Amino acid sequence: MNNVIDVRHLTKQFGNVRAVDDVSFTVEENRIYGLLGRNGAGKTTLMNLLTGQDFATTGDIRVFGATPVENASVLQHVCFIKESQKYPDDFLVKHVLRSAPWFFENWDADYAEQLVDDFRVPVKRRIKKLSRGQLSAVGVIVGLASRAPLTFFDEPYLGLDAVARQIFYDRLLEDYAERPRTVILSTHLIDEVSNLLEHVLVIDQGRIVLDQDAETLRESATVVVGTRSSVDSFVADREVLHREGVGGLASVTVGPLSSADRKVAYDSGLELSPVSLQQLVIRKTNTSTQEFEKSA
Ligand SMILES: Nc1ncnc2c1ncn2[C@@H]1O[C@H](COP(=O)(O)OP(=O)(O)OP(=O)(O)O)[C@@H](O)[C@H]1O
After folding, report:
1. Distance, CA of 90 to CA of 138 (rounded, Å)
2. Could you tell me which PANTHER family the record lists for this protein (predicted)?
3. Whose CA is nearest to atom 12 of ligand 1?
């Protein structure tokens, strides 16, 4: 498995804010990554660094084996779709689509046209006049039709309605299945994208607090629900990650369960369900906040 990105001890300091703090990780080729984290966690800063739009304070970044900063041979394989994308003032949507092949060697104009129909984007309208959602749709279309070997989507769908978001997820998965590439998606809509993600990176206060294969992550915790007494006896010797309850009912999150464990649970009348990715991320980032507050 080839690494498309290799980051070692990367730090980015803005004055007294350490937006990215001694981060090391790799990104494998042809997988879909989720870059998740709370507001101000460092996601956009990290993407800016990985796409050569900003300089690291310290540390080393390799993208396709080389530094991305001012490196055309790297950046021609990279597409970065961000929420705050700027276009020339007089640009119409069709100008964006026509100029895209200058930047992306794999640009597929027919596919872009099909996506324009899917998202109902008015191609003859000025970019400045588009609604918030239509502007996001233009970004999503460019990101998909660029077919760049490495594509970053930073919160790509501000203002996109639920139907358009679903079209984005469906098209991304279909196209990715036919033309595998590496996608890094940053979002707050974690549960919506959880089935899309193959690997999860969670960043909190500039540090990577989770770097895990999504399948392993999904199996890493289970919610056990039932009467308080049966739940308590089932979880008695286990590590409890989270607990809540109402009246005589309890809902407890525990670590991985074997098939024998599951049988015992079912035989005791307990219900088992996987923990949502969103819940896992919330717990992970809440914990580190509490630890941070304790140590502050
Ligand atoms: N140019 C800058 N100057 C000073 N501080 C900055 C600058 N850019 C980012 N920061 C700070 O760095 C931290 C990380 O910001 P960043 O935009 O990377 O977060 P994010 O995870 O993308 O957040 P969100 O989910 O809210 O978009 C924040 O505390 C932010 O205020």
Report:
1. 16
2. ABC TRANSPORTER, ATP-BINDING PROTEIN (PTHR43158:SF5), SKFA PEPTIDE EXPORT ATP-BINDING PROTEIN SKFE (PTHR43158)
3. 19
Token readout for 290 is 């509490």
pLDDT tens, 177-216?
Answer: 999 999 999 998 898 999 999 999 999 999 999 999 999 8
- Ligand 1 shell residues, CB under 6 Å: 14, 17, 19, 37, 39-45
At 154 the pLDDT is 95
What digits encode the pLDDT tens for the residues 215-272?
A: 988 888 899 999 999 999 999 988 898 899 998 999 999 988 989 999 999 999 999 9
pTM for this prediction: 0.89
Tell me what pLDDT residue 1 has: 65
Cα separation, 279 vs 292, whole angstroms: 20
Report residue 247: phi and psi, to 5°: 55, -130
User: Cα–Cα distance between 282 and 241 in angstroms, integer?
Assistant: 12
* Domain count along the chain: 2
ipTM: 0.97
Burial class of residue 244 in the structure, from the number of CB atoms within 10 Å of its CB (0-12 exposed, 13-18 middle, 19+ buried) = exposed
pLDDT in tens, 132-179: 999 999 999 999 999 999 999 999 888 899 999 999 999 999 999 999
- Cα-flanking dihedrals φ and ψ of residue 37, to 5°? 165, 165
CATH of the domain at 109: 3.40.50.300
- Atom number in ligand 1 closest to CA 38: 25
For ligand 1, the distance from its centroid to the CA atom of residue 295, given in whole angstroms, is 22
State whether 38 and 179 are in the same domain: yes
Q: Are residue 205 and residue 233 in the same domain, yes or no? A: no
pLDDT tens-digit series, residues 72-87? 999 999 999 998 788 8
As separate numbers, helices (DSSP H) first and strands (DSSP E) second, the chain gives 11, 13
- Enclosing domain of residue 281: 218-295
CATH assignment at residue 222: 3.30.70
Q: Which atom of ligand 1 is nearest to the CA of 45?
A: 18
| Residues 15 and 142 occupy one common structural domain | yes
